[in-house]
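Provenance

Sequences were taken from public entries as deposited. Structures were produced by running a predictor on each sequence independently, with no templates supplied. The record for Diguanylate cyclase from Sphingobium baderi LL03 is shown for reference.
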Amino acid sequence: MRPSPRLLSLLAPVLIGGIYFLAASISLILSRFEGGIAFIWGANALLMAQLLTSQRIYWFRAILACALASAVSTALFGMGPAAAIPMMLMNMAESLAVAMICRHYASGRNIMVALVPLAIFVGALCGVNALAGLGSALVASHLTSVSFGASWLQWYWGHVLGGLICTPVLVMLMQGEWSRWFRATSPRLRLEALGLLLLLGGVTCYIFYQDRYPLLFVPLLPLVIISFRAGHHGAAASIIVLATVGGATSALSDGYLSSIAVSPGAKTQFFQIYLAFSFLLSLPVAAELNGRRRLFQMLRESEARYRIIAEHCGDMVLNLGTDGRIGYASPSVLEQIGCAPSLLIGQPAADLIHPKDRALVAAACRRALEKPRDIHRVEFRLLRAVDDLDWYEMVARAVMDEQDDATGIVCTIRDMSRHKARQHALQQVASHDSLTGAASRRAFLERLEMEIGRLGGRDQSCLLLLDLDHFKAVNDSHGHAAGDRVLAAFVERLKPGLRSKDCIGRLGGEEFAILLADMDIHRASAVCERLRRMVADEPVHLSTGQSVTVTFSAGLVELDGVANAAAMLEAADKALYRAKNSGRNCLHLAA
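Predicted structure for Diguanylate cyclase:
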């Protein structure tokens, strides 16, 4: 029967406190060579690993358990009861501060996996212990014969090296990294890693057993090889083997370390520094390799997705170099432009584009290279296009290297001909009155504004405002269908009397406007009179067999190139009002 989660949560602090007490007691018994602070201290690494891998709600229990363990071990095996509380406070402050810094600046990232979280951990460990060591050295220098400076160095090196060597390994253990690696790794690679670790153990045993030659650099070669082959898991296992075999060999034999004429504490610090530098040599290599493996896997997945999309979609996909030449063309090119993709490789992409649009596409490609993180769109015609409806849309984005420099462009090209045709049809519907075929009010006003801006006080153009006489009587007598027929026929009769560059628009109801471009007011007046006769001389025949004679009143204004469209319409409307009041079926000029 498995224990309940509540029971496990209660037992966890007891377990962590017990292990902390054991690690602290062993360090105090074996490494207080000068009677002061221990030269080896890995107990805080256990608490830091626990804080780095657990939720914050469980921190208080773990810290309380380890604080009790620290105080008891110091009182029993360290500097006595007087130092128990101060040393406990320093130990807890160190572990908590390092954990909080790492959780804040490297949240959610394993310190073994990437260089940035590893650097944050090392920096926090070194900086926090530089401050915590001051308080501990003050206590030790008062209670023992060891000086303040020596006590600070003993604390600093023991805690920094112990934390650096043990914390990453313990983090991996608590996060289940070892078991996941074992399950995810092939038997061949597991056997290879085991063989390399045995080789490292044998080399380490010999190097520390002999005392003739300084060969401490030799184990670094198998250590780096293991890091390459097994990643950060192999790097952590290598440090465990190096520390265990090297430490045991040095303790049980008169090997290389015994030949160094320094104190036991100095030899211990030397060995820890050796382990730390070995660790810092292998772990960044492993972290970088791990990042490259993930990147390589992501690239392979991205390549697979890209191939499926490029080879099975209807859009054309092209890879362009920075010189604009084609490096890859998808199979859909054959269907879209009738050319085999292989024939396009190495050819300038500009050769496929209509000459009128090449500058536009080239500008879009330059923007893609200058702003590689943005997506750029451009519409253009292919060289084979026979009219303005054969349009394509290109979506382009730069391809970047490791330094985020653009090395080329990948683009998709989609046939936009049908979309352009629909867009043109919608524009036609929006810009023309559906009943009469004249320009809509909005389209006419836009044309009027453009004409005013074009004049600029140099040329002459006129605006003619028309209103059908007694149109309400037509609707009342013959019905609205007859009224619609009269409006449509009215525009049909006007068009033969206008030039292609003139524009007629329906402003609303029975009110129309005509823009007479490049025409002074005298010629415009003559045109208006001719139009009035053309409309009046030809009655409109209705479906009922009856006929309706149509006349209109008009107001004419000359555009000055300064006043806006609203002012011109207002002036023409005033002239039209005077024409209506003077008997209708006549023209009046604006004042």
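Confidence is low (pLDDT under 50) at residues 385-389.
The domain at 1-175 is CATH 1.10.1760 (Arp2/3 complex 21 kDa subunit ARPC3).
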